[in-house]
């Protein structure tokens, strides 16, 4: 007969409490059931584990086995606790791949709410462009992708929000004076610093301006730093610029038709780990309550 975990549990309970009756009460079993399990354990070991029938004192072998049995029972209890915690979304691992603008403006309140509800879940957040996000999802190196993402075979895509493109420049830039009537043609005499999101803009009037650009900066932080220093202007979706950047302004365009749509992409719901299910459910809840997006950037 193989040693069973229940044998170890009965043995450690009797050793800790010094009697069959007390051990049975702690385990929620009858004294006869505990006695039978203990007898089977001693028969498997091939030697008595207690010096007397009262079970109040361990034999030398019993003391050695008790130390090992206690560790095993404790380890199993911890394992069960972790497994149950994962099932309740209390523990686990969440891998997020998001675009830089989402990471800096949209994601923080979502993560703050998620951490408050699930403090034991480990979160890995990486920012990258939408093409890289799709690749990470396809290779199963991310659980959730948020960005301007296409349909990916075998995965679920949920639209989160859409925002229009506009000009981003310094607050004291000449363009900021007449922003209420700004059109693509007004950008012709200004140096454009292009970025990866410019490729989403199909407006015909923007294409010649983009073709003339001699500087491309994919990283959002570097891009805004250059704009802040007056190197040039750029074009971004509205929510890519946070309110905290008061020295920069977002200028809506009167003739813009291009919009960016941000999606959340995950594996099919049946294949999601509990931690991922909890995160996607929170995003849907915050979206429904209009808490997902940050407050609009104040126009000038």
CATH class descriptor of the largest domain: Alpha Beta
Indicate the CATH architecture of the largest domain: 3-Layer(aba) Sandwich
**What class do helices, strands and sheet pairing give?**
alpha/beta
Low-pLDDT sequence parts = 294-300
Taking all residues together, what is the mean pLDDT?
A: 86
| Major sheet | 7 strands, mixed
Order of helices and strands: HHHHEHEHEEEHEHEEEH
CATH superfamily of the largest domain: Periplasmic binding protein-like II
Gap from first CA to last CA: 81 Å
Number of domains: 3
Output the radius of gyration.
31 Å
What does this entry look like structurally?
The protein is of the alpha/beta class and 300 residues long. It is 40% helix and 18% strand. It is built from nine helices and nine strands. Strands 1, 2, 3, 4, 7, 8 and 9 form a seven-stranded mixed β-sheet that branches. Helix 7 links the parallel strand 5 and strand 6. Helix 1 crosses helix 4. The relative contact order is 0.14. Residues 294-300 have low confidence and may be disordered.
Quickly describe the structure.
The protein is an alpha/beta fold and 300 residues long.
Based on the model shown, name its key terms.
D-Maltodextrin-Binding Protein, domain 2; alpha/beta; 300 residues; Arc Repressor Mutant, subunit A
């Amino acid at each position: 007969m193989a040693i069973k975990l229940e044998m170890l549990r009965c043995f450690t309970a009797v050793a800790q409490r010094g009697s069959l009756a007390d051990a049975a009460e702690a385990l929620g079993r009858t004294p006869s059931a505990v006695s039978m399990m203990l007898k089977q354990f001693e028969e498997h070991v091939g030697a008595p584990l207690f010096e007397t029938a009262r079970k109040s004192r361990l034999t030398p072998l019993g003391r050695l086995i008790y130390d090992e049995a206690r560790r095993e029972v404790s380890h199993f209890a911890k394992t069960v606790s972790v497994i149950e915690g994962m099932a309740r979304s209390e523990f686990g691992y969440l891998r997020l791949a998001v675009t830089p603008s989402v990471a800096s403006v949209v994601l923080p309140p979502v993560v703050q709410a998620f951490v408050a509800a699930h403090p034991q879940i480990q979160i890995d957040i990486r920012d990258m462009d939408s093409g890289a996000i799709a690749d990470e999802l396809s290779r199963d190196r991310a659980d959730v992708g948020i960005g301007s993402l296409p349909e990916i075979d075998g995965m679920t895509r949920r639209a989160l929000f859409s925002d229009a493109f506009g000009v981003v420049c310094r607050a004291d830039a000449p363009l900021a004076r007449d922003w209420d009537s700004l059109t693509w043609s007004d950008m012709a005499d200004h140096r454009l610093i292009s970025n990866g999101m410019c490729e989403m803009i199909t407006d015909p009037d923007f294409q010649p301006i983009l073709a003339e650009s001699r500087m491309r900066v994919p990283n959002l932080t570097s891009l805004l730093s250059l704009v802040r220093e007056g190197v040039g202007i750029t074009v971004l979706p509205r929510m890519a610029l946070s309110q905290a950047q008061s020295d920069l302004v977002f200028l809506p365009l009167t003739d813009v038709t291009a919009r960016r749509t941000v999606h959340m992409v995950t594996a099919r719901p049946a294949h999601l780990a509990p931690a991922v299910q909890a995160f996607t459910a929170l995003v849907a809840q915050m979206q429904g309550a209009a808490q997902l997006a940050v407050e609009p950037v104040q126009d000038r």
